[in-house]
Specification:
single chain, Leucine Aminopeptidase, subunit E, domain 1, 2 domains
């Protein structure tokens, strides 16, 4: 009960800090239930612009996010695979790997829609407000080209780093050849960057599917073939384990079948 009471008070302080930052929100009350306070805390982080926060806020925020991570449970990469390319279904923010890949927008500032279910929102929400500020300082107001990648620390994630990549947005019934090439480039750019930093493990999300509307089956084919080709062409790479992280059942089945083909 004591731990619950402590979190309840901590979330009230965090929500009040974030509400007081913005004149439009200062009169908003902090909810009475623990889950509603968690939701408000996440929503306020989602809409917060990239700017510094006080050391006290970061300390309390980090404490809260570590409580939530412990509740979900971090997944150790060595318990999944070693020296292999595998599929794992679940929440990518639980993976304790060298780097997870974020499907970012061209501004690379994260999702500003409160409580949105995209992976960009999930990663920024679990990492903390430091991630958006780091991205803003890295981008300096510029847009990132489709198919390229950038790296930041993981902050409160169990992953050491986040590699952000901008996938193609499909607006037609089928992706264009250029878009297929751009998607393949997302994977090679991320692998190149991971190798440059001497990382041993990397977990890919299903880049460009979902909100960016790339067909799941074709995205899977490109992802698996591109990663296999890169790994075969870089036998001395630092990268020893690649995970295809899936969340939806359709992607889980697609990657299981693609990897089983050898």
């Amino acid at each position: 009960m004591a731990n619950s009471d402590s979190e309840f008070r901590r979330l009230e302080w965090l929500c009040r800090y974030l509400l007081d930052e913005n004149p439009r929100y200062r009169q908003m009350p902090v909810p009475d239930s623990l889950q509603e306070r968690r939701d408000l805390f996440r929503a306020l982080m989602n809409v917060r612009p990239p700017m510094p926060a006080s050391e006290e806020f970061l300390r309390v925020q980090d404490e809260q996010l570590q409580v939530q991570l412990a509740e979900k449970g971090a997944v150790e990469i060595l318990r999944i695979a070693q020296n292999d390319i595998v599929e794992w279904q679940g929440d990518i923010t639980r993976l304790k790997v060298d780097a997870i890949v974020n499907a970012a927008n061209s501004q690379m500032l994260g999702c500003f829609v409160p409580m949105h279910r995209c992976i960009d929102n999930a990663i920024h929400s679990a990492a903390g407000v430091q991630l958006r500020l780091a991205c803003a300082e890295m981008m300096k107001g510029l847009d990132e080209p489709t198919g390229s990648a950038r790296i930041t620390p993981g902050f409160n994630l169990p992953a050491r780093y986040v590699i952000h990549t901008v996938g193609p947005i499909v607006t037609t019934s089928l992706p264009l050849r250029q878009q297929e090439a751009q998607l393949a480039s997302c994977y090679t750019s991320c692998l190149d960057l991971a190798h440059k930093y001497g990382l041993a493990s990397i977990a890919f999300c299903c880049i460009s599917t979902g909100e960016f509307r790339f067909p799941n089956d074709r995205a899977c084919e490109i992802a698996v073939s591109t990663v296999r080709s890169w790994m075969a062409g870089h036998p001395d790479s630092s990268i020893k384990t690649v995970i295809f992280n899936t969340f939806k059942d359709i992607d889980h089945e697609l990657y299981q079948n693609a990897l089983a083909k050898g």
